[in-house]
């Protein structure tokens, strides 16, 4: 049945030393090679090519032109705004994620599944619809929004709206990473600490937090990447006011539509570099703390 | 009041009130109230009004385009994503861990960045677009361009849900199948694939939901011609720019309804497949 001579050229010297038969749980080397080629080829075309284009287009007129475009006030204010938005929305989501995961994993109550569904809801809502919902609630033509604008605290077309939109689209990130890890770890360690007389906060800070810190960091990392890069929801609520409510992704769109290709792609390259950094850190966490993060992958 | 609804059973653990308080406050402020405002806008506009907005050729064309292409992209990602998961979980090759990390790039790369990059690549003066042009084809500013963008944003979902399941499959199952006389292909088709199905469907649903609502990566490459390459989320943005809040809410609600119906159907298929093969 199995013709080993057919596969001779595909075997490495190391495999030569091994017996000539292959396990029944293995595909033939040729099949393997074809599948690996499809997988790598597909990834190269679909994922790596767009990434390479970002940097190639940014550097199309030389590195100096790219750097100059980033120091323009428009780009600079966009970078600052994006950093502010991330600096506010990521901690907010981290606090929410911890609170939600604690409540869901440490207690039994009716309606838990319903609560989890509600937390996951933002994943199945289009960012544009999310932005629309925020505009309808806080926009100047709604009751609440009209009152907020009149009292000098506008939300839509201003920073709070952008933060709310970013929090909405990243809402489940931290909670989703923490819940499986905390389910896996159970409650016994916390209960032991409580019986030994530790206060609630002390239990959380000295028992729970060290157990979940890598998963928390993992969630925060993903949350940050999405918050800095959100486009659809922010496009709707920000009003795209130059120098005021234009985040980095919004500014990329403006520059691109004005055919300022180098400027648009330079800003894009900055975000792409951030994405690569996020991936590198995330991969490092997965390698080093595989035991803790394994739970998040299993669920 | 809301706390009473989620009343904890007796527990020595502290912090239920605080945790639930933060959770419900944030959930209300960020998710429930805005989505409620959207539904309220639809309700005040009335079902007849919503229907009159949705029931126009332009809106139908956009909804049909969005859901059709999202479905095709999700099917592509289901097949390619499963293959990718299999290769990454089972085969050893140089750079495997690197490739594993690259799979997540579409999650990490902002959609606007992906949008302009894909457009630069597939526009007639781009690398792939030029290739297509020399064969008399056009990719960017057609449905093909939209499809490529939707495939890009949904690519990691299936791989990430299926990969851990493959890693947990016991080799004994495959060996048993082989000793009973099944060929490798037969084992893959009749033993392995059914085990992967529930997880693959979860990934499929996530990929579909993401593609239906996708905006940032699509608008650059789509060309945005009414009736031809105009996606549903773009119509919402257009209505908002015209200050037609009722119209925007109507399309938003229609999208929510169709998405939830689709997700419900996928959930039912998933329950059915889990029952058929037992819990994995």
From TrEMBL, chain A:
InterPro entries: CysW_permease (IPR011866), MetI-like (IPR000515), MetI-like_sf (IPR035906), Sulph_transpt2 (IPR005667). It holds the Pfam family BPD_transp_1. GO terms for cellular component: plasma membrane. The keyword Metal-binding does not apply. Keywords: Membrane, Sulfate transport, Transmembrane, Transmembrane helix, Transport. It is a multi-pass membrane protein. Residues 79-280 form the ABC transmembrane type-1 domain. The chain crosses the membrane at residues 33-56, 76-102, 114-138, 144-171, 215-238, 259-281. SUPFAM superfamilies: MetI-like. GO terms for molecular function: ABC-type sulfate transporter activity. Gene3D superfamilies: MetI-like. The keyword Transmembrane applies. It is found in: Cell membrane. PANTHER family: SULFATE TRANSPORT SYSTEM PERMEASE PROTEIN, SULFATE TRANSPORT SYSTEM PERMEASE PROTEIN CYSW. Part of the ABC transporter complex CysAWTP (TC 3.A.1.6.1) involved in sulfate/thiosulfate import. Probably responsible for the translocation of the substrate across the membrane. NCBIfam families: 3a0106s02, permease_CysW. The complex is composed of two ATP-binding proteins (CysA), two transmembrane proteins (CysT and CysW) and a solute-binding protein (CysP). This is Sulfate ABC transporter permease subunit CysW. It comes from Paracoccus aestuariivivens. The lineage of its organism: Bacteria, Pseudomonadati, Pseudomonadota, Alphaproteobacteria, Rhodobacterales.
UniProtKB/TrEMBL annotation, chain B:
InterPro entries: CysT_permease, MetI-like, MetI-like_sf, Sulph_transpt2. Belongs to the binding-protein-dependent transport system permease family. CysTW subfamily. Keywords: Membrane, Sulfate transport, Transmembrane, Transmembrane helix, Transport. It holds the Pfam family BPD_transp_1. Residues 63-266 form the ABC transmembrane type-1 domain. One of its GO terms (cellular component) is plasma membrane. It is found in: Cell membrane. Part of the ABC transporter complex (TC 3.A.1.6.1) involved in sulfate/thiosulfate import. The complex is composed of two ATP-binding proteins (CysA), two transmembrane proteins (CysT and CysW) and a solute-binding protein (CysP). This is Sulfate transport system permease protein CysT. It is a multi-pass membrane protein. Its main location: membrane. GO terms for molecular function: ABC-type sulfate transporter activity. It comes from Paracoccus aestuariivivens. The chain crosses the membrane at residues 66-89, 101-124, 144-162, 191-209, 248-269. It comes from the Bacteria.
């Amino acid at each position: 049945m199995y013709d080993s001579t057919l596969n001779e050229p595909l075997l490495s010297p190391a495999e030569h030393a091994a017996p000539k038969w292959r396990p029944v749980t293995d595909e033939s080397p040729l099949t393997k090679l074809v599948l690996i080629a499809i997988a790598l080829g597909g990834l190269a075309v679909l994922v790596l090519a767009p990434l390479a284009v970002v940097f190639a287009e940014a550097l199309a007129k030389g590195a100096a032109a790219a750097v100059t475009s980033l120091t323009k006030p428009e780009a600079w204010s966009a970078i600052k705004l994006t950093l502010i938005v991330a600096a506010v929305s990521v901690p907010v989501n981290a606090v929410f994620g911890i609170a939600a995961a604690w409540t869901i994993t440490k207690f039994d109550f009716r309606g838990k599944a319903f609560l989890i569904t509600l937390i996951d809801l933002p994943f199945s809502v289009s960012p544009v619809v999310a932005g629309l919902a925020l505009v309808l609630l806080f926009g100047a033509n709604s009751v609440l929004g009209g009152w907020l604008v009149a009292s000098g605290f506008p939300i839509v077309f201003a920073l709070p709206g952008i933060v709310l939109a970013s929090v909405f689209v990243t809402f489940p990130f931290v909670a989703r990473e923490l819940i499986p890890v905390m389910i896996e770890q159970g409650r016994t360690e916390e209960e032991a600490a409580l019986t030994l007389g530790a206060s609630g906060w002390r239990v959380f800070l000295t028992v729970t937090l060290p157990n979940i810190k890598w998963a928390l960091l993992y969630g925060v990392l993903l949350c940050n990447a999405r918050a800095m890069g959100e486009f659809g929801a922010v496009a709707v609520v920000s009003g795209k006011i130059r120098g005021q409510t234009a985040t980095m992704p919004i500014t990329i769109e403006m520059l691109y539509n004005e055919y300022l290709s180098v400027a648009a792609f330079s800003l894009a390259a900055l975000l792409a570099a951030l994405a690569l950094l996020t991936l590198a850190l995330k991969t490092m966490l997965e390698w080093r703390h595989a035991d803790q993060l394994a739970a998040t992958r299993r669920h | 009041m809301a706390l009473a609804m989620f009343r904890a059973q007796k527990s020595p653990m502290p912090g239920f009130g605080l945790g639930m308080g933060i959770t419900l406050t944030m959930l209300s402020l960020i998710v429930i109230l805005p989505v409620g405002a959207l539904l309220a806008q639809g309700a005040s506009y009335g079902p007849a009004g919503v229907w009159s907005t949705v029931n126009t050729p332009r809106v139908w064309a956009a909804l049909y385009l969005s859901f059709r292409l999202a479905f095709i992209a999700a099917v592509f990602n289901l097949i390619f994503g499963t293959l990718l998961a299999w290769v990454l979980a089972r085969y050893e090759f140089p750079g495997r861990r690197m490739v594993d990390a690259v799979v997540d790039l579409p999650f990490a790369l902002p959609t606007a960045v992906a949008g302009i990059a894909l457009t630069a690549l597939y526009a007639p003066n781009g690398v792939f677009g030029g290739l297509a042009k020399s064969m008399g084809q056009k990719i960017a500013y057609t449905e093909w361009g939209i499809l490529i963008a939707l495939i890009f944003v949904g690519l990691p979902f299936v791989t990430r849900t299926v990969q851990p399941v493959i890693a947990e499959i016991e080799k004994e199952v495959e060996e048993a199948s082989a000793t009973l006389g099944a060929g490798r292909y037969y084992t893959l088709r009749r033993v392995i694939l059914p085990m992967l199905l529930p997880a693959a469907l979860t990934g499929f649903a996530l990929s579909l939901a993401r593609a239906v609502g996708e905006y940032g990566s699509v608008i650059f490459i789509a060309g945005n011609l009414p009736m031809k390459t105009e996606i549903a989320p773009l119509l919402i943005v257009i209505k908002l720019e015209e200050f037609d809040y009722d119209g925007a809410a109507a399309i938003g609600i229609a999208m929510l309804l169709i998405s939830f119906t689709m997700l419900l159907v996928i959930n039912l298929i998933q329950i059915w497949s889990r029952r058929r093969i037992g819990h994995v």
